[in-house]
Amino acid sequence: MVPIVPEGREPASSAPAVGNNVSFQNALRGMGRAVDGGERLVASAASGNLGGLDSGQLIALQAGIYRYSEAVDLVAKLVDRASTAVKTVVSPH
C-alpha cells in the first residue's frame, strides 16, 4: 500500500518573521523532509505498488506528487538565487 501523506510532514504554521535565522533553518529542513517524503511516494508509485487504492486515495496520491513537484521547484529556485547571489558577491566590481 502506498503511503498517501509523506512521513514526517508537519502541519503548516504561520509565516516566519523576516530575518529570523532559526525559522529559515526550520523552513529549509521542512522542505528537505517534503522532498524526501515525495521521493518515497514517487518511488512507491513507480514500483507499481498501487493495488487496491480507491479513487479518493488515488486523488490523494496525485496531490502528494503535486506537493513533491512544488517542493522540488522551490528548492531549485532557492539554489538558483543563492548561486546568483554568491556570483554577485564574489565577482570583481
Number of domains: 1
Round the mean pLDDT to the nearest integer and report it. 78
Task: Provide the helix percentage.
Answer: 55-70%
Q: Largest sheet at a glance? A: none
Derived structural class? mainly alpha
Counting DSSP H or I runs of 4 or more residues, the number of helices is 2
In short:
This protein has 93 residues and is an all-alpha fold. It has one domain.
Commentary on this structure:
The protein is mostly helical and 93 residues long. The protein has one domain. Helix content is 67%, strand content 0%. Helix 1 packs across helix 2. The N and C termini lie far apart (57 Å). About 14% of the residues have low confidence.
List descriptors.
single chain; 93 residues; mainly alpha; 67% helix; elongated
